[in-house]
Amino acid sequence: MNGTRLHPGTPAPAAVLELLKPVTWFPPMWAFGCGVVASGVPLAGHWGVALTGILLAGPLVCATSQAVNDWFDREVDAINEPHRPIPSGRIPGRWGLAIACAWTGVSLAVAAALGLWVFLAALLGLALAWAYSAPPLRLKRNGWWGNAACGLCYEGLAWVTGAAAMLGGALPPAPSLILAALYSAGAHGIMTLNDFKSIAGDRQMGIRSLPASLGPARAARVACWVMAVPQAAVIGLLLAWGRPVEAGIVAAFLAGQIAMMRHFLAKPTERALWYSGFGVPLYVFGMLASAFAARALT
Known about the structure:
Blueprint: H1 13-20, H2 26-39, H3 47-72, H4 74-80, H5 95-113, H6 116-133, H7 143-166, H8 174-194, H9 199-204, H10 210-214, H11 216-240, H12 244-266, H13 268-278, H14 280-297
Helix pairs in contact: 2-3, 2-7, 2-14, 3-5, 3-6, 3-7, 5-6, 6-7, 7-8, 8-11, 8-14, 11-12, 11-14, 12-13, 12-14
């Protein structure tokens, strides 16, 4: 008798939580928080909106995308990561698909409670999540398109949604929109880092992630450039907008990333996870500094 299951054939709660991948929730939650900051609206009296939106961005919409991806990637994961909940059998039958569908519905219900604009943003994010993983589009088969969709959802869309939610559905000011777009572009490189662990399976299954199609060395250089150039543009814009302190903070974080990039580029396959763990946090700290600059410009 398995006490961790509700009944035979039902996945254990721990396996469901693993399927939803809490470790991946941080980027969109952080980006939503940056949008909240950039809105310029005081948190007093708006805590409920902010906290519900952060819940929506991470444990709901992002978690849905992870369940969708694992279901449609089950053959690839059987090669790359056979210990994952679906290929290992810990989430049996079609439970993976059922969880993805149910979490989509819950996400839309919570988004609707936050207003029309948040609902539409969540609908777009969920549509991209399904388009990324599911046929016929399966955007992840092409590393350029797939990573662009992920970058948009994880950073730009979450940022704009956070700002719009705090502004009562109004369109955020231009500086906030521009910064969100630039950090979305840079997030394309972050998504590339995640693909280094699955090169063998991607090649076998015809998924043209950048590491699989360009090779590890070229893909690593592309990822670094794609992350660095938008941040350089952010620095230039912040200086032009009269925010030298925030520009200096972003520049310092970028300098730290460049130093780490040199180490990563020497052995990209072995060090992609290392760079994700230590370089990407500097990227997102720069986002927050930029959000405070946008707040001052409102």
